[in-house]
Write a structure and sequence with these properties.
By secondary structure, this protein is of the alpha+beta class. 43% of the residues lie in helices and 10% in strands. It contains seven helices and four strands. The structure holds FE2/S2 (inorganic) cluster.
Length: 172
């Protein structure tokens, strides 16, 4: 189970968030900066974090929520420990990225944008990641995997399932 879920105001990360807010409180237009740091801290921006930012910066919650939902870099959804992102740029798509996405969906039982119930995997897609020569490409956390086929999906999942939280070595 992941530990990045703020379940109570006693979560020590709220103290850290208070510090971030205090450091930025008097800087005009600091909302995005604070939200960015808050997301780095918690992994996502749940309601209780947004309320804290709203109170701390004295900005209406509607404005905070508006910014969080407007910018795609912010998320209100808890991400899994292993974040899979399949490139759906043109080069990857014509080389079978769609089949890879379908294989992940089938294996994990989730859709794009969703996280498995055990909090281990989040499935996402991305645009060109600049590695078209290795198409089709996907990333899992910081690791880049190229020339992937749909048949590689089960072994990739097995590898990351087994190593969740440990060092990972790219398989291709
Ligand atoms: S289109 Fe996928 S890396 Fe360029």
């Amino acid at each position: 189970m992941t530990t990045n879920c703020p379940t109570s105001p006693e979560d020590p990360r709220f103290k850290e968030l208070e510090k971030i807010i205090a450091e930025n409180k008097d800087i005009p237009g600091s909302l995005i900066q604070v939200l960015h740091k808050a997301q780095n801290l918690f992994g996502y921006l749940p309601e209780e974090v947004q309320v804290k930012v709203s109170d701390g910066l004295n900005i209406p919650i509607s404005e905070v929520y508006g910014v969080v939902t407007f910018y795609s870099l912010f998320t209100m959804t808890k991400k899994g420990k292993c974040r899979i992102s399949v490139c759906l740029g043109t080069a990857c798509y014509v080389k079978g990225a769609g089949d890879i996405v379908a294989a992940f969906k089938k294996e994990l039982g989730i859709d794009i944008g969703d996280t498995t119930k055990d909090g281990l995997f989040t499935l996402d897609s991305s645009r060109c990641v600049g590695a078209c020569g290795m198409a089709p490409v996907l990333t899992i956390n910081e690791d880049v995997h190229g020339l992937v086929t749909k048949d590689d999906v089960p072994k990739l999942l097995e590898k990351y399932r087994g190593e969740a939280g440990g060092d990972k070595e790219a398989v291709s």
